[in-house]
Each structure stands twice: as structure tokens, then as C-alpha cells.
Amino acid sequence: xxxxxxxxxxxxxxxxxxxxxxxxxxxxxxxxxxxxxxxxxxxxxxxxxxxxxxxxxxxxxxxxxxxxxxxxxxxxxxxxxxxxxxxxxxxxxxxxxxxxxxxxxxxxxxxxxxxxxxxxxxxxxxxxxxxxxxxxxxxxxxxxxxxxxxxxxxxxxxxxx
Amino acid sequence: xxxxxxxxxxxxxxxxxxxxxxxxxxxxxxxxxxxxxxxxxxxxxxxxxxxxxxxxxxxxxxxxxxxxxxxxxxxxxxxxxxxxxxxxxxxxxxxxxxxxxxxxxxxxxxxxxxxxxxxxxxxxxxxxxxxxxxxxxxxxxxxxxxxxxxxxxxxxxxxxxxxxxxxxxxxxxxxxxxxxxxxxxxxxxxxxxxxxxxxxxxxxxxxxxxxxxxxxxxxxxxxxxxxxxxxxxxxxxxxxxxxxxxxxxxxxxxxxxxxxxxxxxxxxxxxxxxxxxxxxxxxxxxxxxxxxxxxxxxxxxxxxxxxxxxxxxxxxxxxxxxxxxxxxxxxxxxxxxxxxxxxxxxxxxxxxxxxxxxxxxxxxxxxxxxxxxxxxxxxxxxxxxxxxxxxxxxxxxxxxxxxxxxxxxxxxxxxxxxxxxxxxxxxxxxxxxxxxxxxxxxxxxxxxxxxxxxxxxxxxxxxxxxxxxxxxxxxxxxxxxxxxxxxxxxxxxxxxxxxxxxxxxxxxxxxxxxxxxxxxxxxxxxxxxxxxxxxxxxxxxxxxxxxxxxxxxxxxxxxxxxxxxxxxxxxxxxxxxxxxx
Lengths: 161, 581
Hints:
The complex is a heterodimer of chains A (about 160) and B (about 575). By secondary structure, chain A is α+β, with helices and mostly antiparallel strands. Chain A has 4 helices and 9 strands. Chain A is elongated and about 55 Å long. Chain B is an alpha/beta fold and about 575 residues long. Chain B folds into 3 domains: about 20-185, Thiamin diphosphate (ThDP)-binding fold, Pyr/PP domains (Rossmann fold); about 205-370, TPP-binding domain (Rossmann fold, 3-Layer(aba) Sandwich); about 390-560, Rossmann fold, CATH 3.40.50.970. Chain A: It catalyses: 2 pyruvate + H(+) = (2S)-2-acetolactate + CO2.
């Protein structure tokens, strides 16, 4: 099963590689990993999308907790949560394609943020599935490049993790 | 330096103190931490620190001959004393040589602090001479590590390193100090206490869980205790003895846990696992409640996991939550410090007076005694060729079981564990987790430095001893009267045993040809070498070695090259599927 894990950790050099190293050393899967400082600049928040059985997830959480720089670990998939990912996508857009791409972008609530006479660059946010769907809706030959942030996620309700 | 106030109290602001260099801070911090011995090897990046070390004598430095040995010695020093061991090495190759020692301590959860030199901050990342990414390399084999980039952080980082090493589940912590930091100056303040928001080990067991555990234990028909290195590290041997004796239950120790419960006690069934005794393994396989204390269900202990302790409900107490339900599903987990949890358990027993059903216990013991009759460690000693078991048995008898025994890794390690009965904790020092050949001799040095008057014996083999043989030179320099007992079978014995059992007697590269004459080698290093060729030589050689109390003695026992370690649970088999003699 897919899990989204939120990690609060000390914003220190090496902390990120400790987490990444733990996943590779113990053979845990990483689908995506994002990290940035929080409103408290001494703390970073990391979101890891991973897959594994219940037993493996228990170990992942325990092993993360064991890292000295990790302040808190929470599996967001245990409760209601919101997940978003940002994608920037650059596509060939000439002739009648320009109108078609624009329409498609509107359907997916994307925004065109850069335009040349031969291309559009768009910004989309949503779940990973939605971004996948947008890419699939395009003619594969049109895509020039794609950059995705990986999932960020937060729990629903008034409480912090 | 003498004008400085002690660091236990923060100096008043109007008291002007002379600033200290980073190197002075390192040495002062070691002193303030109560460190008496540092094992190390100098080099370019740590010269300022060595310069300071040489100008004082509160912290004594033991110069090894290879950085790996410095870490092993510091590790064994810690295992014997319970204090944090300290090693000091230079950058680059100094650090990489130390890695095996660090990984060894990590796998066995031994608290040590390793200080490594680093190239100056401005050169980091430039592929400078003797530069290596030490924190990067050691990240997966330390509990935590630090690179100090500002001299103002140095004292508090060292304090944190000692704190992290010794608390919770202990382990090695590394502090990497660039050379320029050791010459920069700052005000010295050594914090008395450290508190980290991200690091709060759970020490007290959850009362409800402890109660539940005790209910399960006292309700058992066939209880079995299985305890590991955590009891030794947690200084919980006294409470463990009390609990197990009160209940009259059988107990086994892991390789790392030997000495936690007296080997001479009737309730002790010997070691369990791949080379455990028949009775210990059978009791684990047939018990209805298994109480795992400070043990981690290692693959060498459990054998085939799916067939492990099939009838047992399991209680597991450990300070490290990640050890619980890692390999084996546990029925009653308790996270906490072993000494505290056992104390709570003993209190519960004293209060409620609950005990196991006496009839069931009697039946259980009758069954166990039957298994014990199997005499699984039996060996036949003739008068021609020395059986390695005999050497360990004689060592045990002639030292009265009171020696500190270190070992390397292989057959000799298993025979030492099987035939030297440890009645006390912190007397059996071996590399259980990583299985590091070359551990034994430097470990013996560390043990001897820790306890100068103790008899320290390193049980080793002709393969392992050559992995750190250069340390005989250190033994001479510091008059460390270590006794080496080399079970010389002219083979990498454990490799040969596996090849005999599982690779159809194809002894690929396990024969150690061209062995040195160890007697002459010992003499060349300025020590005494003794050789035993026949069973009749064994006792006189050991007696002579022990008589030479103040000398390092190398005993070369020419033992049966074909002897195997029994019992043996083949990898992947159930614990009850033992190959017996």
C-alpha cells in the first residue's frame, strides 16, 4: 500500500542524507521525497511517498524515529489528509495545437506561465494521479520536458502532526 | 591553563577567562568528561590535538599500530568498564581504517566516541591531501556523527557526542574536526547537561505493559528466558538474576549476553542459536512463553524465522523500539531501560506473589534435564592431538573462570563461548554482530588498560590473529600482559567447516599456507612465545603463561585441523534441526 509520511527534522546539514540513506540502506522504497524549512526555520518538513506492507511501514516509522535529528514522524495515510504536487510542463505548441493545449490546460486548471512562438510552459497542481492524467491527455510527441515536485501533504482538521 | 576554573560551574561574567584553542578544548572536554584513556594514532590533521595531549597527563594516550585497533581497544575498554571508550585518529586513511572498528561497535551497540581529524574547512570538498568525507562514510555505521565547522560549537558537540553514545540504545558517535578548528580560539564552556528536542529515549517501561508481561510470564506452563547484550549494556544482570531465580525458570543467553546469568547456575541452559546447546534450542522451540530481554532475534539466534518458537507467546523488552517486532511478531512489547523494567518486574512479583504452577514447572524441568542428558558439547580427547575445546576448558579451569576473555571470529570464538563459563557480565568481549576478525587482540589491550590487574586472555585462531598482529608492538610499549591463546588449526576453520558441510569438502582458499612461527614472531616483538603440540602440553603451557603475570605471552596450540563446532543449526533450518556430534 502507498503511504505518505511526514517528517519533522532539525534543519541541519546532513539531515536529509540521513533519511535518504536510511531508506536505501534498509531497502525501503521511495516514490518521492520533498523537503523544505517550515515556518520555524530551525525545522524542516519532509514528505516521503513510499510503499510497503504493514510490517515494513512499522519498521520505516520506527527507524525514522530513531534518527537523532528527527523530531516527529507521522503516517498521514492513517487519517484524512490532503495531497498536492506541483508540475511544470513544457510542450510544443504550434498551429492548431496552441488552442488545443490551452483548452486542455484550462480543463485541468493549469496555468500557462511561459509562452514562445513554438511552446507553452504550464503549471499544474493536484494529486499525482491528476498530473499523470494530464500528461496522458497530451500527444506524447508534444512534451518537451516535465518537472514534478513530488507530493506534499498535510492532515485535514485543525491539528498539526 | 591552571588559572581556569573548573567547567562544572559556568564562570561568572566578570571573571575573564583566557580563550582556548580547539585542540585545548578537545583535551579539556575529555578531562571534564572523566576520560582517562584515549586510544589513537596521530597524523597531520590531528597534530594540534596531539600537541595538547602530550602536555598533560590526566588523559593518557595509548598509541596503537593501526587505527582499526584503536577503535576496537576503545570499544573493549567500554565493554569492560561500562564507560564511554574514546578513539582519536587522523583524517583520510586514519578515518577509513577506523570504519571497521566503528561498524563493529555499532552492531554491538557499544558506546564510544571517535574523534577524527579533517582537512581545514576551506579545503573540504577540494580532494585535499588525506581528505575523505568521513561523516558521509560513517553515517550508516554510527548512532550519530558531527562535522564541527565552528570552534564555538566544539565543546557542546563533544558533550552531545558523549551523551548520545551512552544513552538510550548506546552506540558509536563520531566527531569530525577540521584542522583549522583545532587552532581557532574561543571561550570554553562545557555544558553540564544536554537536552535535545529530537532525542528522548524511553527509559521507564509502560506500567500496564509490564504488568501484562508479568501475567503472561507467571501464567506460563513452560516459560523460557532469552537474554542478550542489552542486559550487559544496561547493567541489568543483578535484577535479571533476581527475577529468574524467583521464578525458577530456565534461561539462555545469546553470544552477546553471556555472563548476564551465571553459567555455573543450574537454571542456565547455555547459549542458544546456530552453535547453541541442544537444551537451550530445544527449550526455546518448546516453551509456551518466551521472555526476550535486551535481545534482537538475530538470524544467528532464531534460525528459520517461520519455525522459530512455534508454541510461544513472546514478551520482548528493549530500549530500542525498532528492535521490537522487527524479525518476530511480539505479543507483549515493552520499551524501556532493562534495569528499570526488570526492577519493576521484580517489584510486581514481590507484591502479588504470583508464581508459575509448580507441577507444570516440574514437568518442564524434567523435560529440560532430559535434553541436557544429551551432553551436546561432548568431545573425545585422545592423547595424540589437541582438541581445541580442551584448550578453552583448561583456560577456564586454570583461570578459575575469572579472566576477561576476548575473542576473534570463527570456530575458536564459538568454542570460547561454549566452554568458558562466564559467571559475571563484562568478562566476555567479542564481535557478535559484525563478526570482525582482528577484533580479539586490540580488544584484549583495551580490556587490559581498563583492568591492569585482571587476567586478560585473547582466544583466537591462526587466521584472525594475523588481521591485527601488529598490535603485539603496542602490548610491548605499554606493558600489557595480555595472554593470547591461538587455536592454530592451519585453516580458516569456520570457513572450512561450512565447506565441509555445504560445499562437498571443497576447501576453497580456507587453508592458510605459509603460517609464521608464532613463537618466534612473539619473541621478535619482545614477548614470550609458547607452543603446545600434544594434549599433555596444554596445561603446562597455560600454567606457564599465567605464571608470567607481567609478560605478554603468545600460546600457540597446534589443534586438530578437522574439528568442527557442534551443535550446529544450518542456515535456514529450524532451531530444533541441529547437527549433533
